[in-house]
Design brief:
Residues 23-272 form the EAL domain. This is Phytochrome-like protein cph2. One of its GO terms (biological process) is phosphorelay signal transduction system. Keywords: Coiled coil, Phosphoprotein. There is one protein chain. Helix 2 (73-81) crosses helix 3. This protein has helices spanning 2-33, 73-81, 85-101, 115-119, 123-133, 147-152, 154-166, 183-186, 198-202, 208-223, 236-245, 261-270, and strands spanning 39-48, 53-65, 69-71, 108-112, 141-145, 170-176, 193-196, 227-230, 249-250. A hairpin with a 3-residue loop joins strand 2 and strand 3. With 274 residues, it is α/β, with parallel strands linked by helices. Helices cover 50% and strands 19% of the residues. It binds ligand C2E and calcium ion (3 copies).
């Protein structure tokens, strides 16, 4: 048992070492990715339930690395968040998304913002300056934050949210239901809408609880004056259930996969749900 234990320790050390090396090489690659033009922003349609039309797009980052191939954001974003890289990436995505948004009159763009970006003292002012420079009305720009942002530092986060709203931006709480927040403790934050996490949508039609959760979240959010976006809608069954529940917006492969900038501009001009 003792020998087994020791060799396990060695294996563990080696894999730690390998994962540290992997992180290091991702970080080094990411540092050059912007200059090497390896990054791209793709856009996924967001549909308004009542009008059944595309009203906006969520900007999602893609990295096609010459060294590693396609690396999903779920891998490189957390690494970027642990260094200052997330600031450069965030600024790059924002600049791209705002430039593209100008090609979609009447539609909004929704941009994911990490906790570290959000906590920067100049976050709101820098965003407002960029949006003004691009001559875009701030109400066409939605910022997506996660629950971590609020609960890490609630007094300052609440203040930043107020300033964002005051500047005219919309704010969405992403991945709702996966963290610690409940509708009770988010009611005092300035939020325009909740995005119900895909894990709850996945359960629709399979688990009774999923439908109950989606229904009650939607109902309470509406009574608090917030919109509800269902994300990760993949099937007709889910779509029907979500429409019945009264979600204000729908997003997912059922309506459209993330697409490149040109395809997105064409879709926005066509104006109809795919
Ligand atoms: P998220 O913000 O929750 O984005 C939704 C994710 O679900 C996206 O994955 C999207 O492609 C995927 N998705 C949308 N509809 C469906 C569906 O019907 N089925 C399935 N299976 N998946 C669907 P993606 O693009 O891989 O992004 C993963 C996460 O990486 C995002 O989750 C977000 O947290 C982060 N991320 C992506 N781009 C950025 C960015 O520019 N900045 C920051 N800070 N984070 C980003
Ligand atoms: Ca998001
Ligand atoms: Ca999400
Ligand atoms: Ca997510």
């Amino acid at each position: 048992a003792k020998r087994g234990g020791r060799s396990q320790v060695r294996l563990f050390d080696r894999s730690m070492d390998e994962s540290a090396r992997f992180r290091h090489s991702i970080e080094a690659g990411l540092r050059q990715a912007i200059a090497k033009r390896e990054l791209e922003v793709v856009y996924q349609p967001i549909i308004a339930r009542e009008a059944a039309e595309v009203v906006g797009f969520e900007a999602l980052l893609r990295w096609n690395s010459a060294e590693h191939g396609e690396i999903p954001p779920s891998v490189f974003i957390p690494i970027a968040e642990e260094s200052n890289l997330i600031h450069d990436l965030g600024e790059w995505v924002t600049a791209e998304a705002l430039a593209e948004c100008r090609r979609w009159p009447g539609h909004f763009v929704s941009i994911n913002v990490s906790a570290r970006q959000f906590r920067r003292q100049d976050f709101v002012d820098a965003l407002a300056a960029r949006v003004a420079a691009a001559s875009i009305s701030p109400d066409r720009v939605q910022i997506e934050i996660t629950e971590t942002v609020i609960f890490d530092d609630d007094a300052r986060a609440a203040e930043t949210l107020r300033r964002l709203r005051h500047a005219g931006f919309r704010v969405a709480l992403d991945d709702f239901g996966t963290g610690y927040s409940s509708l009770f403790n988010i009611r005092n934050y300035a939020l325009d809408c909740l995005k119900i996490d895909k894990s709850f949508i996945d359960g629709l039609g399979r688990e009774v609880e999923a439908a109950a959760i989606v229904n009650s979240v939607t109902h309470l959010a509406r009574s608090l004056g917030m919109g509800v976006v269902a994300e990760g809608v993949e099937t007709e069954t889910q779509n029907q259930a979500l429409r019945l529940a009264g979600c204000s917006h729908l997003q997912g492969f059922y309506y459209g996969h993330p697409a490149d900038a040109d395809a997105t501009a064409a879709l926005a001009l066509a104006g109809e749900a795919p």
